[in-house]
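Team,

Forwarding the record for the chain on the shared tracking sheet. I've put the sequence and predicted structure together so nobody has to dig through attachments.
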Amino acid sequence: MMLSPIEMMRLTVDGMMTRGFGRIINIVSRSVKMAQLELGLSNGARSGLVGFVAGLARQTVARNVTINNLLPGIFDSDAQRAHVGAMLEATGKTFEELWRARAEANPARRYGRPDELGAYCAFLCSQHAGFITGQNLLIDGGSYPGTY
């Protein structure tokens, strides 16, 4: 969650800067902005990655290398289905009841679609996103309650 992405950036960013183009996108989690109690160590590691990117991104952008973090909320994915499945016994609800309730708790009243995350990532990787760097872009259907 932190050391491997930092190592991958370390191994690739110099070559990108030499070539004069590069895009690095870390898919982190909304837990960076809204810590999840059950993910204590993960919250810390992800926050460390975001902090590292904040400094590095400002050193590479002059060479047309941008580094950003996507902070997805709950998406319709196999990982979320497994997570909901693990919650069933504690809640006493069926999978469909819990799955639907979690979607309805989001202001968008649904889960994110994987293609939405992919499209956002593709834009950030394009030549049109050269002025976006060092950002933590929340993609959560409005579930984060804060202003910043």
